[in-house]
From TrEMBL:
Belongs to the peptidase S8 family. The active site is at D167, H241, S603. Gene3D superfamilies: 2.60.40.2310, 3.50.30.30, Peptidase S8 propeptide/proteinase inhibitor I9, Peptidase S8/S53 domain. Residues 158-644 form the Peptidase S8/S53 domain. Residues 69-131 form the Inhibitor I9 domain. InterPro entries: Peptidase_S8/S53_dom (IPR000209), Peptidase_S8/S53_dom_sf (IPR036852), Peptidase_S8_Ser-AS (IPR023828), Peptidase_S8_subtilisin-rel (IPR015500), Peptidases_S8_3 (IPR034197), S8pro/Inhibitor_I9 (IPR010259), S8pro/Inhibitor_I9_sf (IPR037045), SBT (IPR045051). This is Subtilisin-like protease SBT2.5. One of its GO terms (biological process) is proteolysis. Residues 1-24 form the signal peptide. The gene is LOC113742772. Pfam families: fn3_6, Inhibitor_I9, Peptidase_S8. It comes from Coffea arabica. Keywords: Hydrolase, Protease, Serine protease, Signal. Residues 723-815 form the Subtilisin-like protease fibronectin type-III domain. GO terms for molecular function: serine-type endopeptidase activity.
Length: 821
């Protein structure tokens, strides 16, 4: 997949169980009793009701009842630990009070076993470790012309909406987050977060645009994984990823992207006036720990964020929880949604293979990554007239001139340095400057670029320091399907990614380069020139589903059984996204020391949705997270700019990349259409009780586990999980005939909707009623009946369309697999 992609792959990895007797580790402990978000009152001394448990409204965390109850929970955590263990034999890392009731503690496995047996303890889990999983995209999505003007222009887009980012921190002095050239930012009274002070500069991280900055590293410190000189014991971004994500969602508008003396356009966030609240829980070398991430989410919701962006997720379904939907991470997110927070989560970078999703639950928006219409291409012209296509985001060599080409292996200062793999041009001191100067340096693209420390940036620096006119990287032997991204460089440079084209280059060089009997070059005769790769080519074959983007079907448990919920939910740009970077960030070797980076991954797709959700929230401040998600999904598109069905990048038999027609397992409901999402006509709403009903009806789920989590008996009124009121329909095991019900709510003027459906011929589809008229704010039910006609052993795809008399179109994807029994 390429080193860049490996660096941003989103994962949560279960640590292997230690057999070391007595070795202390971090455990997450869940305790009986309501967290603040579900507290109804009634605990001794806490008669006042803190929150209506059946409501999904935000609660007043500043009320005396809530703060007293939160303090009461923390005292219970401390009391339990104090009763069981001697002082000094354990270290409590966090108390979780807001979204879940429990704590993280650093103890030995023997102590963990004692805790498991203690009355009132629901579960004791070893901590997970986590890793993190522009620009042109505002124009591609139509924001400057079709969306921002409706809210007062870019300088009002996202006004007073607070986006929370649980990531690697932020580079606060970046122009994407500056307030120098903007209207003054007023206070946001609803936000209760704080700004930590930078220990080096003694200044806090906030400026009005950034309104909150906190970091969470207690678990990392307790585990001995934290290095303050590298990881920064503050919200400062030591990685680059966090600054990039925040800028995509909410960076300032029109920021020039300058690198190596060239300008690559102007960057803007989706909601350039939105506020940024940073919750750093990911770090440079080791990623992070779930205990820290859950603490960050808990704090963000407590502080009052409106939208939460998560570019982290599990790398496999949990082995200890009966369902993917109630692992501790997703359970925390369910409580966040209960509090009224919209959550965008990256779907994962395990594509193009099926069942590689890392974002499972219906209460969050799982975002797949698309390639937009911008492509960077370049070419190398050889002295024999052949033109070789390649990638090179670089200036051209002088027009109408060719330059001598010299291979790194032929210009070594001393043959003894071969052990340093000189052909990858990472070490200028081993090459002869006299032979390289004024020429084009030929280098080899090895596995060291994919899984090692080599970078194209370093090749460029080597070539420049030796006085080369430019460089060529030839790919000879990396694995088929490796993903190559263009990298901006300041001198002419090109990567020949096609192995057969690299062979043509090498053959030409060898034929043109006479050698003596020892193999030493007598004279360099091969010549070439490098084209101009700075200007992108805009393609109509966009958007496309990116090769790396994780695919469905969704899974319901660790046995990889299919779930009756469609994932991913939506597709958004996630390939070659220009945005802010931290100069001290080390996540991408090609962008070390730079202010901007062009990175790919579903990590980059999620903040597009978070930022667009902020625009929807700004226009409709009282909509629930489910209503916002519905608006984004039902208005999305399944055709590209050339009005053809969306294509998905896929491997062909030889593992070269090809294109296939995309399905809902690639893109969910389709590619986001921000303008339409602001005015969807109808929404499919759902809340906390609906989601609990969904989990209760998932096959194989233990009702006791639900009771432990929700403190109430299972609600089976939904009947089947496929009846959850989501804007998609998925039936993984359709036998005979099944009918699902959906409820829509009119969020526009009175309108009559005609309901139709189409489906692949293996499955018959019918809808009822054929039409409905809804007044503003009114709701109506319709049913969709699916019947197996023939069993094929694969999924069939279709859609339900509600077409309004006022031109609203509401589209619902349908996926089903038919069985004989």
């Amino acid at each position: 997949m390429g080193k860049m992609e490996i660096g941003i792959i989103i994962a949560i990895m279960l640590l292997g169980f230690s057999t070391h007797n007595g070795k202390a580790e971090i455990y997450m402990v869940m305790i009986e009793g309501e967290p603040v978000i579900s507290y109804k009152g009634g605990v001794i001394g806490f008669e006042a009701t803190a929150v209506d448990s059946d409501s999904d409204e935000k609660i007043d965390v500043t009320s005396e009842a809530v703060t007293s109850y939160a303090h009461h929970l923390e005292k219970r955590h401390d009391m339990l630990l104090g009763m069981l263990f001697d002082r000094g034999t354990y270290k409590k890392v966090y108390s979780y009070r807001h979204l879940i009731n429990g704590f993280a503690v650093h103890i030995t496995p023997e102590q963990a076993e004692i805790l498991r047996q203690a009355p009132g303890v629901k579960s004791v889990e070893r901590d997970w470790k986590v890793r993190r999983l522009t620009t042109h995209t505002p124009q591609f999505l139509g924001l400057p012309t079709g969306v921002w003007p409706t809210g007062g222009g870019f300088d009002r887009a996202g006004e007073d909406i607070i986006l929370g980012f649980v990531d690697s921190g932020i580079h606060p002095n970046h122009p994407s987050f500056s307030t120098h050239n903007s209207e003054p930012y007023g206070p946001v009274p609803k936000y209760r977060g704080k700004c930590e002070v930078n220990p080096d500069t003694k200044r806090d991280f906030c400026n009005g645009k950034i309104i909150g900055a906190q970091h969470f590293a207690e678990a990392a410190k307790a585990a001995g994984a934290f290095n303050p000189s590298i990881d920064f014991d503050s919200p400062l971004d030591g990685d680059g990823h966090g600054s990039h994500i925040a800028a995509i969602a909410a960076g300032n508008n029109g920021i020039p992207v300058r690198m190596h003396g060239f300008e690559f356009g102007r960057a803007s966030g989706m909601a350039p006036r939105a506020r940024i609240a940073v919750y750093k829980a990911l770090y440079r070398l080791f990623g992070g720990f779930v205990a820290d991430v859950v603490a960050a989410i808990d704090q963000a919701v407590h502080d009052g964020v409106d939208i939460l962006n998560l570019s982290v997720g599990p790398n496999s379904p949990p082995a200890t929880t009966k369902t993917t939907f109630l692992n501790p991470f997703d359970a925390t997110l369910l409580s966040a949604v209960k509090a009224g927070v919209f959550v965008a989560q990256a779907a994962g970078n395990g594509g193009p293979f099926p069942k590689t999703l890392l974002s499972y639950s219906p209460w969050i928006a799982s975002v797949a990554a698309a390639v937009d219409d911008r492509r960077y291409k370049n070419h190398l012209t050889l002295g024999n007239g052949k033109i070789l296509a390649g990638l090179g985001l670089s200036p051209a060599t002088l027009a109408n001139r060719t330059y001598t080409m010299v291979a790194a292996n032929d210009v070594l200062l001393d043959s003894s340095v071969v052990k340093y793999s000189p052909s990858d041009c990472q070490r200028p001191e081993v090459l002869n400057k006299n032979l390289v100067e004024g020429n084009i340096l030929l280098c080899g693209y090895s596995f060291n670029f994919v899984i090692g420390t080599a970078s194209i940036k370093k090749v460029s620096e080597t070539a420049r320091s030796l006085g080369a006119i430019g460089f060529v990287l030839a790919v000879e032997n990396v694995s088929p399907g490796t993903k190559f991204d263009p990298v901006p460089v300041g001198i002419p440079g090109i990567l020949i990614a096609d192995v057969s084209k690299s062979m043509e280059l090498i053959d030409y060089y060898n034929v043109s380069t006479p050698r003596d009997w020892t193999g030493r070059v007598k004279s360099f005769k091969a010549v070439g020139s490098i084209g101009d790769g700075l200007n992108p080519i805009l393609h109509k074959s966009a958007p496309q589903v990116a090769l790396f983007s994780s695919r469905g079907p969704n899974i319901r448990d660790y046995s990889f059984e299919d779930a009756d919920i469609l994932k991913p939910d939506i597709l958004a740009p996630g390939s070659l996204i220009w945005a802010a970077w931290a100069p001290n960030g080390t996540d991408e070797a090609n962008y070390v020391g730079e202010e901007f980076a062009m990175v790919s991954g579903t990590s980059m797709a999620a903040p597009h949705i978070a930022g667009i959700a902020a625009l929807v929230k700004q226009k409709h401040p009282h909509w629930s997270p489910a209503a916002i998600k519905s608006a984004l999904m039902t208005t999305s598109t399944t055709i590209d700019r050339a009005e053809r069905p969306l294509q998905a990048q896929q491997y062909s038999g030889s593992e070269t990349m090809t294109f296939v027609q995309a399905t809902p397992f690639d893109y969910g409901s389709g590619h986001v259409n921000p303008r339409a999402a602001l005015d969807p006509g109808l929404v499919f709403d759902a809340g906390y009780e609906d989601y609990l009903g969904f989990v209760c009806t998932v096959p194989g789920v233990d009702a006791n586990e639900i009771r432990k989590f929700s403190h109430s008996p299972c609600n089976y009124t939904l009947g089947r999980p496929s009846n959850l009121n989501s804007p998609s329909i998925a039936i993984s095991h359709l036998v005979g005939t099944q009918t699902v019900t959906r409820t829509v709510t009119n969020v526009a003027e009175e309108e009559t909707y005609v309901i139709t459906a189409r489906m692949a011929p293996e499955i018959a589809i019918e809808t009822n009623p054929p039409a409905m008229t809804l007044r503003p704010g009114a709701s109506g039910k319709f049913t969709v009946t699916l019947t197996v006609r023939s069993v094929t052993g694969s999924y069939s795809f279709g859609e339900v369309l509600l077409k309004g008399s006022r031109r609203h179109k509401v589209r619902v994807p349908v996926v089903a697999m038919g069985y004989n029994r």
